[in-house]
Amino acid sequence: MTIETACVIGASFAGLLAARALADHARRVVLLERDVLTPGPVGHTSVPQGRHGHFLQPAALRKLEDWFPGFTDDAVARGAVLAPPGHHSLFSNSEPMADWDATLLTASRPFLEERIRSRVAAIPHVELRHGAAAGLRYRDRSVTGVVYQTGGSATERVLDTDLTVDAMGRGSSLVRWLERGGFPAPAVQRVPVGIGYTTALFRRSPDDLRPKVSCALDQFTPGADGQGLVAVAVYAIEGDRWQVVGVAYGRDRAEATVKDLRAVCAGLPEVFRRATAGEPLGEAEEYFYIDSRRRRIADLDRFPAGLVDIGDAVATYNPVHGIGMASAVNQASVLADSLAGRSGDFLRLREAVIDEAWAAAARLTLF
Ligand SMILES: Cc1cc2nc3c(=O)[nH]c(=O)nc-3n(C[C@H](O)[C@H](O)[C@H](O)COP(=O)(O)OP(=O)(O)OC[C@H]3O[C@@H](n4cnc5c(N)ncnc54)[C@H](O)[C@@H]3O)c2cc1C
Predict the structure, then answer these.
(1) Is residue 50 part of a domain?
(2) 330 in any annotated domain
(3) Structurally, how many domains does the chain consist of?
(4) The pLDDT of residue 48 is above 90
(5) Is residue 343 part of a domain?
(6) Residue range of the domain that includes 159
(7) CB 246 less than 6 A from any atom of ligand 1
(8) For a disulfide at 109, which of 50, 140, 236, 301, Cβ 3.0-4.6 Å?
(9) What is the pLDDT of residues 118-140, one digit of tens each?
(10) Is this prediction's pTM over 0.85?
(11) Beta carbon of 12 within 6 Å of any ligand 1 atom
(12) Ligand 1 within 6 A of 52 CB?
């Protein structure tokens, strides 16, 4: 299948991977992003969760390596940390668990996104365009263009497209735009979660630059009311830093500051104490995740041709399970397969990928 112009709305994790998949099949791919993307591993406004620890599932790393050969080596050369088996640890209520036969790459979320963005932007027929999508153009029963505004101007421009991808994340406007186009609105399933994140950064000392254990997670049994601390994770990341994350159910969190995180880690195994021993780098960041959402596009009896959706725009999962990025990778993979004619209908296959992630995120324990 050859596509003249594809437009991906949203150049974050899922949008970048959709663009990578499309680049093999479209003569031109335009990635439209409303945020100003600063060069370097810097987070952007619309992705506030990026300030928190992001665990990349090992299978997702392998897929990134397929799409971007040399991805891992390049990331490590720039300061990310590779933890083969024996270099990461899992604990349950601070008791060591069996070793996990996996190789993990630890880095901040802005770093991972920027490394992917640099590879996608280097594809000659992919264009990263600054602009906020404001709607879709339809002809008959197909999407034929994306309406957008750029540079703070109210003037609307239209990009004619053969295929449009909604990668606008959790706040996607697609449901409104479908209704405006005379299409039915999909049902949105919501599952209450109510989980709070606190993330702080600490400098790694010179004797801790190649830590034996560079990534660890301690999972806890929450209180009888289901509230309270559920996990603490530490990741050695780029810039010779430790990223330390406390995750708790409920709004009343005891660990909201750097000092609190340190106090919690003081009672945990050695790697947690080591990770919080260095100089704190800035204040702790907080994030509260209210609910998981899944947009049921596949249940609709009418949906425009020339449009697909991907990533958090379609479904979000309780972040403590660390699945969102991996699900985006799997969805982009299914998109690549269906564009290549290696598999059937994208929506049906994509639903299977989301079913799996949705079920995994409903588990009570992390592993
Ligand atoms: C606290 C927290 C921790 C998490 N930890 C993990 C983890 O450990 N591991 C993991 O795998 N996942 C994790 N996740 C999930 C992960 O963050 C998401 O799954 C991932 O960011 C989804 O990427 P996305 O591209 O779909 O959406 P987003 O990252 O939300 O990006 C959407 C993009 O669309 C752009 N956009 C929106 N509207 C428009 C418009 N109209 N025009 C142009 N651009 C637009 C935005 O500016 C943004 O760049 C976590 C989530 C949270 C909340």
Answers:
(1) no
(2) yes
(3) 2
(4) yes
(5) yes
(6) 3-43+111-189+293-361
(7) no
(8) 50
(9) 999 999 999 999 999 999 999 99
(10) yes
(11) yes
(12) yes
